[in-house]
Fold:
Amino acid sequence: MDRFPNAANVDFHSPLDLSKAATAVLDAEGRVSGWGPSAQRLLGHPAEDVLGRPAARLLAGSTGQRLSALCAAHKPRSTVLDLRCQDGHTLRAAVTFSPLAHRGAAATVVVAADLAALRCWEAQLAMLQGLATESSVGLTIFGTDFHVVWGNASTDLELAGVAQYVGLHASALFPEGEFISRHHPPDEDQVMEQVLKTGEPILGMHYRGRAPADPGREHVWSCSYYRLVDARGEPLGLFEESLDITEQYRAQERLSLLVRAGKRIGASLDVRRTAAELADVAVPQLADEVLVDLPPAVIEGRQPPTGSAPGHSLLRMHGRTPEEFRTTPVSYPPSSLQALSLATSRPLVGDTTSGAAGEGAGERGTAARPCCLFVPLLARDAVLGLATFRRDTNPDPFGPEEQTLAVELAERAAVGIDNARRYTSQHATALVLQRSLLPQHLPEQSAVEVAYRYLPADSRVGVGGDWFDLIPLSGARVGLTVGDVVGHGVHAAATMGRLRATVRTLALLDLDPAELLTRLDGLVAQDSEPHADDGLGDEALGVTCLYAIYDPVSGRCVWASAGHPPPIVADASGSVALSALAPGPPLGLGSLPYENVELNLSDGSVVAFFTDGVVEDRRTDIDSGIDRLAHVLTWQRCPLEELCDRALSTLPPGPQADDATLLLIRTRRLGGDRVADLELPPDPAMVAHARTDTERQLESWGLSELSFTAELVVSELVTNSIRYATGPVMLRLIRDRSLLCEVSDNAHTAPHLRRARRDDEGGRGLFLVAQVSQRWGTRYTASGKTIWAELALP
Structure:
């Protein structure tokens, strides 16, 4: 297939060339006496329509007098005219009038071409002239024997005069040069031969050498080769296009080195490995050898010493694995460049590494070095040690850009070393803190069966901020929460513990999930303010959280999410579904409101609450992870412990970058034989009816021992509701792990526990309820409130 399908349209002949231009002949009276085929192609008029007729009819507008003047001229004249085409449109054309004298008859030859095509041709000529005289791209023509034929002005500058190389072989231009691109033949003769033989250009070859005009500095060019052919398609030679990319190439090498450094230096969180990684990255591109000297305290993970003499009691590290690791004591005299670099915290260039006491005999025997660069390792305004970059075989000194690069590498290494030093103690502290803040066990509930797994992040990364909890609520309901504090370390663990405690406190107020997250969002936003004095706001930690409430009486589950993945539900039939409602914003943003999602769960449904560490890692996206977890839940009839193990076994092998928390519940419904409802009109006489029904229900449950206490609680709660409510009162008794008494009405004011004075006629009812019950409280509903109390079973 032709590489350049439009190449045939490139034509450097002038549009006014007689082989292309429209031609016509006018007689002395201005009539058309000759009309060529090219004129018909340009204007569309056939010869029989114009021959013998005035040429002025072909002009657009009244320019007859101007045409007569051009025909009467005694020498060639050129102008721009608007010509009328056969289809009616006007063509602006460049026209040349040339007078003729033939056997005494006056005649004029007219040559015309499209003005736009002429201007394009003139631009092409200007381009060619610019490439030859002004372009920074070197252009060189070689014959079929690969000898130099011609070079433009840029080539002339690089070669310090191209004329002296004309007729010489291409290899004479850069005798010591070489191709550094490896995807084509490495030899220049082979490259040229391939292009000349196949006609396929070779583009973007990188060539390294020293130009005759600048022999003291190595350059890199981007070279492309094209075959030149004549009109018959026979090869004329080769055309080379070269562009000096020395600065870009070196900048790219420096950038690639920094990219490698970013990927490798400090990734291990180990002091000795970080030092070895610095040497691996810098050798041989920047230096022939890199030495790293550190104080013993830094190697052991303690604070670097302060106030000591620079260069004293340092250890030079050797080896790249724990088995090979060893140190050699070194110290630098106060007058040495190494000590001066450590004292001033500035990089210094020298030609020797002598004077370092404690070095090996081999090093002392080779004191003189062509060039050394000493760079202090600085992190958090502390000097951690010294990095020495040596050049033994490369004669070029460390230039300003290379010094900047070495400082950048040393800074990265210093940060990695400092992180490794701080990591051990911080990780141990955070791990203890995180374990103490997570629940040690979850309370057993009639509403749900529970299983959970917490898989900590890999030790090289650090602990995170995942948490989970199960919170017993009134009415046999349970609150379920899973959250994640973005980040690792002590701050993430401390924030996690505080948020878990806050969620538990808000949950015990019987807030619905959306309201709970709204209040939690405000607390997180307040802690994240710059003036927060607890040190946690400075970390700008992101927090996601999901909170759900399950009611085993109705089978209704309500949940809301703050930037957290929604739960996955597998019903009793085995079908798996994911909520279609997108999660709200993470906590602390204070932007969009949170919304509740309601689900009716059948008895035996399995619900999975999880953090992103379960479904996402560096190798798989979150959608694939959710699909993987959903597939595991199709086995929902298995024991929950087995499901947890199945889910975590599907995680990709290798270290985990984030904590993975999975909380599985299997729902249970409380049957009608364990729940009794009674609707009471707002009549004080109904209090006695409520006591009687309570006694009868407890007797049927075999709880007659609780009758007196339960009747007292029911009497007080129903009396308060009838007194202050305006509608019916609903009494509910639930036999669970305790006896639950609930009274609901349409009033939105909750009673308060107070100490009644001796002469008060009332105010003692709630006090009595609080004394005889395990717990009591109030929760608000859409239609009013519910006052509840729990009585211990005998």
Summary: The chain is about 30% helix and 30% strand. The longest helix spans residues 400-437. Residues 1-6, 357-369, 534-540 have pLDDT under 50 and may be disordered.
